[in-house]
Amino acid sequence: ELQVGVSSEWSRGRESALPAAHAIGGDLGNKDSTAELNGSGKIPNRDSGIDSPSCSVAGETFPSEEGAEQKKPSMAGNPGEMEPDRKGTKPSSMEQKRDSTQDDDSDIDEGSSEEQELPECTEPQKLFNIANELLHTEEAYVKRLHLLDQIFCTKLSEAGISPDVITGIFSNISSIYCFHGQFLLPELKTRITQEWSVNPRLGDILQKLAPFLKMYGEYVKNFDRAMDIVNTCMQRSSPFKDVVQNIQKQEVCGNLTLQHHMLEPVQRIPRYELLLKDYLKKLPEESPDRKDAEKSLELISTAANHSNAAIRKMEKMHKLLEVYERLGGEEDIVNPANELIKEGHIQKLSAKNGTAQDRYLFLFNSMVLYCVPKLRLIGQKFSVREKMDIAGLQVQEIAKQNVAHTFSITGKKRSLELQARTEEEKREWINVIQATIEKHKQNSETFRAFNSSFSQEEEHPPDSSVSTSAYMQIQNKLPRTIQLPETHQACFPGWCPFLAEQV
Fold it and tell me: Principal place where this protein is found (predicted)?
């Protein structure tokens, strides 16, 4: 506890401390110094020792002094707390009692002690918080659906864009918007805002409506194709591009692209799954809502798996686009069937003199791209020197005199002797290339077996009425190619054969 007396020493300390107090507290330093004393002759604890005699020695620094000066501005910036002292009012009797019984702690310390005294959130409150988060995110999600269905779709239609193109982009977004806007959101809102005090449940609503989430399957399956159509239209159709860009400039779009908003429905189902899992963790075992909540989670998890697969597929496509740009567009690798497995720097050993040359490998599930780095100031670019198919490729370790960490890959047209930086890196390259070769062989054998079986079915169709239904089921499951209609020509001149749809 800091004792202060009115003395010459105190006066000298006051003079040295006034500039600091003035810098922190504004006009506090101009007030009568007697207003700073309480009935006990002590400095109020809001000063945290800044005006105390211990701070009066010029040039003297204490470990705690710097921290006190740092804490002071946050307090001085609150006019409400400082107003009583500015008026020069005396501390209340309660404050005097506190000063006489407690040490002079800072306001920050007092605030932290108050936070520690707050009661911990109860389990029912935690459940309500989860429900409330579900409601708020659902409201925001319905606004995004409104943007897609009622703004983008409507404006594109008014601009004369073909209905087939619009359907190819937005799929069944109207049905999804109708379900969430007219069914799920109203029920959640009524339950959480009006009925929660008497019926604190979520599982029954979600269990009843979760089966309708199957409609997301159509949207998710069409998502890759929708992205292709949007990208192509932005490049080849001026009316389409103008409409989309005008909408994207509006505040409702939040400076995000059409493609970003189109990803929202794909991401929504996994978020339901996460919230419901959190809800079940907080839900008591004996709760009447547990059975419905568990059943809801089972249904939503099934739908989430499809969405997660689509998200992973999109991430793979983004990687392919990045590699495509780094290759300067030399190789057409942006294909849903392609998958980037590994990439990295490698040394190529010259067949003439054995010197090492800097090279770069891209390993895909169907090919290896052997590249030469280009000299660039910004961003690494590569030029493709050799494209080697995985089919028929061989990889093996080789031993060369005075050269370590070497291996070779041999294709149908060329063989390359390569050197890794370390033995571990060499083993990694060999293993991953060998695994890719084996997987490609297995896929090829499976495809040949399927074709062989299908050919036999065509040569000897079933002649009994009993097996006809089973035969037709197999036929219906096989993919059939459908050309895009001529109405797409307005947006895809010359692209119809390329955008054949698999259904």
Answer: cytoplasm
